Amino acid sequence: xxxxxxxxxxxxxxxxxxxxxxxxxxxxxxxxxxxxxxxxxxxxxxxxxxxxxxxxxxxxxxxxxxxxxxxxxxxxxxxxxxxxxxxxxxxxxxxxxxxxxxxxxxxxxxxxxxxxxxxxxxxxxxxxxxxxxxxxxxxxxxxxxxxxxxxxxxxxxxxxxxxxxxxxxxxxxxxxxxxxxxxxxxxxxxxxxxxxxxxxxxxxxxxxxxxxxxxxxxxxxxxxxxxxxxxxxxxxxxxxxxxxxxxxxxxxxxxxxxxxxxxxxxxxxxxxxxx
Length: 275
Hints:
9 helices, 65% helix, elongated
């Protein structure tokens, strides 16, 4: 009896790994192309017209025009470098095309008109609005998604969902910070006074980042988002002091008042985190 070979179920497109950009940055590719032409060509006079490594499209056009001047392995290497440079240029154009499409739509251009302009037409010459809409979704994924997101229209809703969740989380963070801000502001200033008096334990080898940020933050709160950020700085300063004290096996403060200030700040941070 012949056994049926089992095949793995197909992987949904949005779950597959995304195709990554070339590893070498574009300016490196341009410089490598120049070196290939400089080292391989007998007639280097044409290189006087090299566009410059910063003119990436010009480099691509120039090296394609003069590709015949190379041979053998140099020819093959240059061709692959051009492939990668072209990929970088295509990726660099994506944000501009997305912005242009959105501006056109805001200006009243229909998806049918967009399809005609982009060449998305049927055999009968009729525009295909769906193709233009899918292009916009793909660009949306590339520009606003994560590096691992596949460039597929169906992934666009995942990008929007993540953005909505991030907005909700930010709103909740701001609301939690606002709820404790008045008390936390007082606690932060008290902490700073005890820190300046040397009553809170501090690692002498540490750069004092969190304490420095906290000192700047208490007098520079312009809106709700900045007020909510105060929680982050207080949390960082308190944890820094407590972690060093734990490593040293000592109390995190040298006076009862300073210890109370640390405990109050810790309670308010925990309260904000729990909201």
